[in-house]
Each structure stands twice: as C-alpha cells, then as structure tokens.
Amino acid sequence: MLEAKQAVGGRASGGELDQLVGYQIHFTDLFALQGARAALAERQTTPATVTALLYIRDCAGCDQATVGRLLSINRSSVMKLVDRLELRGFVERCAGRDRRSNGLYLTDKGRRFLLEVLELLKKTDAVLCQNLNARERAELLRLLKKIGMGAAAGAGMTAE
Length: 160
Fold this sequence. Notes:
Elements: E1 6-8, E2 11-13, H1 21-41, H2 47-58, H3 64-71, H4 75-87, E3 91-95, E4 102-106, H5 108-128, H6 134-154
Antiparallel strand pairs: 1-2, 3-4
Helix pairs in contact: 1-5, 2-5, 3-4
C-alpha cells in the first residue's frame, strides 16, 4: 500500500499520479469548476450556461443543435437550456439558415449579463492562479492549449 508523502488539497501527493499530466489537469479542473460554480450561483447560472452564452455571442445565428454539440448535451437538454435563456431575456430565437431551424442571438440584456458573470469568473481565475506570476500564467495557458490541440487531434476532433 502506498503512503502519501503529503496531502495537497485533500488528495494524496508524492506518488505516481503526480507524474500524470491528465490527472493533474483533472484534479485542478475540479477546483476550478468548484470556484466557478460557487461564484456563478449568486447569479443563478452555471459554467455550461456561460459557455453557451459565449458561443451564441461569438457565433450569432448558430442553431440549438450546434450549441448542444459544443456542450455535449442532447437535443432535449439544449432545448431546455435555450428555453431558460430566452425566458430570462438573454437570448432570442430568429429565423435560421432554413425553415426548420432557428438562429440564436444574444440580447442586450444577455450581453450585459455575460459581462457581469465573466467578471466573476475572472476573480475565481485569479484565485486559482494566485501562485503564478503573469509570465507563468501565460505559459500555462499556452501549454494547456497545446495539450488540448493534441488531445483533440488524437480523438479525431478539432480544438478551437
């Protein structure tokens, strides 16, 4: 039985898992999402909802199916998500590429809300990266993007 040399963040440290990049990314992601969820809860939203709003803002006119693929959720779940966003006045459905689909557009209220929650996420990100200087943070982002591109290519996907 392996004994942990020390406990870091409530987990064993000093073993083989410390050498696995995927494990380190996953474990850090748990902290990142926990902080993001806590910050976003005060605005009654979630990281997935913010991701959807960002995509709708950046790809104005996209359809629900595309948002669902981005979030890896089924048609029913994305429909419920878009219904909630529309009910809150953040998104509007307009004529899409064809008669069978609707294009999704952020409203002014949705844009303001997105700016507010992005500020909350920047604060949680600052806490997450508090032990990094600006150069280290930039390098970490560069390396994570590089890892993501390699992982996506290995899975037959494209990282954007």
